[in-house]
Write a structure and sequence with these properties.
Layout lengths: L1 H9 L1 H16 L9 E8 L2 E3 L7 E2 L2 E6 L2 E7 L6 E8 L3 E5 L1 E6 L15 H16 L2 H17 L2 E8 L2 H11 L2 E8 L10 H15 L6 E7 L7 H14 L3 E5 L3 H11 L3 H8 L6 E5 L8 H6 L3 E4 L1 H6 L7 H6 L4 E3 L12 H16 L7 H8 L1 H6 L17 E5 L11 H7 L6 E6 L2 E5 L2 E2 L4 H20 L1
Parallel strand pairs: 1-6, 2-7, 8-9, 9-10, 10-11, 12-13, 13-14, 14-15
Antiparallel strand pairs: 1-4, 2-3, 4-5, 7-16, 16-17, 17-18, 18-19
Bound molecules: the ligand CSC[C@H]1O[C@@H](n2cnc3c(O)ncnc32)[C@H](O)[C@@H]1O and zinc ion.
The site of zinc ion has 6 residues, from loops.
Length: 476
Amino acid sequence: MSSLHSRLKAFPSLTFILFWLLASALLLTPGQMRATTTVDLLVRGGTVVTMDAQRRIIPDGFLAVQGNRIVAVGTAAEAGQYRARTVIEASGKAVLPGLINAHTHVPMTLFRGLADDLALQEWLTKFIFPAEAKNVTREMVRAGTRLACLEMIRSGTTCFVDMYYFEDDIADVTEAAGLRAIVGQTIIDFPVPDALTPQIGLAQAERFIQKYKTGHPLITPAVAPHAPYTCAPETLIACRKLADKHGVPLVIHLAEADTETQTILERYGRRPIPHVERVGVLGARTIAAHVIQTQPDEYAILKKYNVGIVHCPQSNMKLAAGVAAVPEMRAAGLAVGLGTDGAASNNDLDLFEEMDTAAKLHKVVRRDPTVLPAETILEMATIEGARAIHMADRIGSLEAGKLADFIIVDVSNPRQLPNYQLASTLVYATKSSDVETVVVNGKLLMRDRRILTLDEAAIRRETATFRKRILESLQK
Ligand SMILES: CSC[C@H]1O[C@@H](n2cnc3c(O)ncnc32)[C@H](O)[C@@H]1O
Ligand SMILES: [Zn+2]
């Protein structure tokens, strides 16, 4: 005791520290006395755009991640109890849910710019289907998917819905890149690169579904009948049965162009939406892309089956397919997400561009600047998109318990200032190159624009090889 006393005398500063520790312990409130919690990842200091039910935007907020889930979201003052293995300082930046590309064909990045400025039927039948017949192989699909994943990570997409051929390869590459996806094996009534008949396609789809259906952390398998004009009623029914048998989503192009309406009317005496209802293809977890050729009485049909709608404004504009009645479908209670479609009809996979376009397109066609305001558009790319793809219980907002899929976006560029209203800044003034950091399922895929899961240089080389091959194939 005496020795302690003499030491304390010798070190007055130590006395002070002991006194201070005791005093602060006595003055701490029970909340402040909580033990610290160690988490895997802590993002602090940014403006957290939660997209939760109250649409809370938390300036100087934080986000804590443990494993693949968000465990806490709040103000910086509440972040004190968290210690983390990885801390990301996000002041001056926005932290938002990862963007959801609800309709695409990822390998088509390798057909980007191959056939432009054409209407849908001509584009598909004269250029894209023949180019696919000559070029789509497992190898090509893997290379195109890698390029797409690189582009999507760089532009803030964390989840996408795909429909194409060789989907097991798409799933494999997507998993390696670390992205989340609903991956739909295409079924179509003519011979395609991975199936000579729809029956073979269906058998393949079932094998693929069985491989991925039990709780894969990133991949949800799906059945993807191409469209009502390329799939006979028997094919559509078989797809629905397969989806129901395994409880997986069904993804389809629906009511895209007036040529589809004419064909379906001629063949079956009904418009596309009543036709697919009558056939029985609408059902649980249906995701329908485009949905342009609609009449007001058809929204109730879509609502009855809780069909998720995907609006693809840039593809629809480029193929001159028309303008979907997005405000009316939303008013009818339908969930409408955003999609880019494939890179051959867009020509990129950039959801920041898609948001800007969607917001402006509907204003100009209606001569009404109040339709689809920036906040609504941001919803369509996040929580509403998650509803459209039937995943809103897991993704689309930043809330404790949800999967940790989020992006950190710089909002301090001169082009974004003075930033009066964050939704406006994000939709109208932000570029995909402002995305700095991307996290999916709790894992960092890009940090400060450095890609962590893909070899960017190798992807550039591989793309150049396929460019040459595809060009040569078209000259034969
Ligand atoms: C089911 S996906 C595979 C198939 O669809 C083709 N495709 C790409 N974009 C569109 C579109 O907007 N409408 C219809 N079909 C499309 C793609 O080239 C594949 O052959
Ligand atoms: Zn499409």
